[in-house]
Amino acid sequence: MFYPFALEQYLEELVPQRDPLLLEMEARSLAETIPIITPAVGNFLAWLVQVSSAHNMLEIGTAIGYSTLWLARPAQAWGGHVTTIDLNVDRQQRAVAYFSRAGLTNTITSLAGDARKLLPSLDGAYDLVFIDAAKGEYLEYLDLVTPLMASNGILVVDNVLFRGWVVPGSTFDPKYERMVAKLREFLARLNQNPDFATSVLPLGDGLAISRRRS
Ligand SMILES: C[S@@+](CC[C@H](N)C(=O)[O-])C[C@H]1O[C@@H](n2cnc3c(N)ncnc32)[C@H](O)[C@@H]1O
User: Fold this and answer.
1) What is the whole-number distance in angstroms between the Cα of residue 29 and the centre of ligand 1?
2) Helix, strand, coil share (%) of the chain residues, nearest 5
3) Distance, CA 188 to ligand 1 centroid (Å)?
4) Nearest CA to ligand 1 atom 22
5) What is the residue with the minimal CA distance to atom 21 of ligand 1?
6) Helix (H, G, I), strand (E, B) or coil at 153
7) How far apart are CA 126 and CA 208, in angstroms?
8) How far is the CA of 120 from the centre of ligand 1 (A)?
9) All domains of the chain, ordered by start, with CATH?
């Protein structure tokens, strides 16, 4: 987190009380250091699904399905659907169990595998795509999901500010140099891409929100 922890805590307090299933997933992720979106980001994703009335959604990076639940729950009301991908089979199977407990088996299709291999076999058009997987692969995901996106579809990408380290002049462990450089390149490419209208929000670890131009 690159902004004060107190601010993140305050934003979390403003999020309406989560149900026991989401709270259990938050606790498991914390205990096992599985990185998941913050509750404030989840609340924002659910809001985005509601205002866009997204029907067909795609997520890259399921982990145990926490963000998937935030996407799928509001869309269940109008028969929306989320396809979610993770290459970690253990996490993917745990996510499937959570989707079943949430009563979302028919709303979510969970795929195990490398998104870079699976994406070319998917049929669009997706109204909303959420990318939250390997930061070093974001440029590859972008190229692969762009043709799958509906006109006016929304693209949300997590962790784009990477603890604020993408900001020039930041100090961080040199082992992250390559990843920071990749994220800077990704943000530059996305913001300059004429196919997308993009804003970057400093929520959570940084979210890029783009609309695919028609
Ligand atoms: C940050 S976690 C996802 C967290 C989840 N979106 C949430 O907030 O609840 C990133 C996930 O991406 C997965 N991942 C990494 N590279 C991937 C790839 N090439 N294809 C599919 N999944 C990948 C990892 O296995 C990991 O579970």
Assistant:
1) 13
2) 50, 20, 30
3) 23
4) 86
5) 86
6) strand
7) 17
8) 18
9) 5-212 (3.40.50.150)
Per-residue pLDDT of the chain (214 residues; tens, 9 = 90+): 566 788 888 999 999 999 999 999 999 999 999 999 999 999 999 999 999 999 999 999 999 999 999 999 999 999 999 999 999 999 999 999 999 999 999 999 999 999 999 999 999 899 999 999 999 999 999 999 999 999 999 999 999 999 999 999 999 999 999 999 999 999 999 999 999 999 999 999 999 999 999 8
The identity of residue 42, as a single letter, is: G
Instruction: Give the strand pairing for 126-131 and 56-60.
Output: parallel
| Length reported for the chain | 214
Count Cβ neighbours within 10 Å for each residue of 59-97 and write b for 16 or more, e otherwise: bbbbbbbbbbbbbbbbbbeeebbbbbbbbeeebbebbbe
